[in-house]
Specification:
- The protein is mostly helical and 237 residues long.
- It has a single domain, classed as Aminoglycoside phosphotransferase (APH), C-terminal lobe (Aminoglycoside 3'-phosphotransferase, Chain: A, domain 2, Alpha-Beta Complex), CATH 3.90.1200.10.
- It is 41% helix and 9% strand.
- The protein contains eight helices and seven strands; from the N terminus they run H-E-E-E-H-H-H-E-E-E-E-H-H-H-H.
- The strands form three sheets. A three-stranded antiparallel β-sheet has the order 3-5-6, covered by helices on one side. The chain has a two-stranded antiparallel ribbon with strand order 1-2. It has a two-stranded antiparallel ribbon with strand order 4-7.
- Helix 5 (148-159) crosses helix 7.
- It is globular, with a radius of gyration of 19 Å.
- The model has no long low-confidence stretch (mean pLDDT 96).
Length: 237
């Protein structure tokens, strides 16, 4: 709620709170927040993502929101520790990989100045209405951290999966003003983001067995069993 209010004050387009007072409304023991319904819309384009991220990252971090520091490994072990989708060998590999990446993260090179970051910035978290107005969605991962974390999500869509064309990525970096792939910390962030995407699908496959084949394929790509990037991961899963 407070992030949405701050974004409104800062003139960064985002999903907005409904005019209900007070908020949240407690129903039983559950706090419920009411949001304005979005008008007819479609997912954004990488250019919309770049433009919104540029606005967000340029803001002075607020001192009164209590935003946490970025934790790129939040919930990763829990996604796989109790999973019945992956075998023991894959589970052990993932847990070791998380530990290795944590150690590397402590030596993350300096990059752009720390800022408020979205945490899960991709076209699926941007809505564009019929007038072309783009707004940020899914504000729960806001934190303070390296802006590169928000940029990697689009960069790997070209370099790791070829989900976007080179021309689209060029437009992204032109609008944002920086290409994260030239930063020395890119490989570490890429590997961490890919692991998050793979383990998220492992978690989802626990409720939807139709995703199991793709989840295992993603893990095995990371293990080096399907050659080098770009891999044939199915988009939008």
């Amino acid at each position: 709620m407070r992030v949405a209010q701050w974004l409104r004050t800062a003139a960064v387009p985002s999903v907005s709170l409904a005019e209900v007072n007070p908020q949240p409304v407690v129903v039983g023991d559950i706090p419920v927040v009411f949001w304005r319904r979005l008008p007819p819309h479609q997912p954004g384009h990488v250019v919309d993502v770049a433009r919104l991220l540029r606005q967000l990252h340029d803001l002075d971090p607020p001192t009164d929101l209590g935003l946490p520091e970025l934790d790129p490994f939040v919930r990763l072990p829990e996604r796989v520790s109790g999973s019945n989708v992956i075998d023991l060998a894959r589970r052990d590999w993932i847990l070791r990989r998380i530990d290795d990446l944590r150690v590397e993260w402590e030596l993350l090179p300096d990059g752009l100045p720390q800022s408020v970051i979205h945490g899960d910035a991709w076209v699926g978290n941007v809505a564009v209405d019929v007038n072309g107005t783009a707004v940020l969605l899914d504000l729960e991962r806001f934190s303070i951290g390296p802006p590169e974390w928000d940029l990697v999500s689009t960069a790997i869509k070209l370099g790791s999966f070829f989900w976007i064309r080179r021309e689209e990525y060029k437009r992204f970096i032109d609008v944002y003003g920086s290409d994260v792939t030239y930063w020395p910390g890119y490989t570490l962030m890429r590997d961490t983001r890919e692991l998050r995407m793979a383990t998220f699908l492992v978690q989802r496959a626990g409720q939807d067995p139709r995703l199991t084949r793709e989840a295992l394929y993603r893990i095995d790509c990371l293990r080096g069993l399907h050659g080098v990037r770009p891999w044939r991961w199915t988009p939008s899963l």
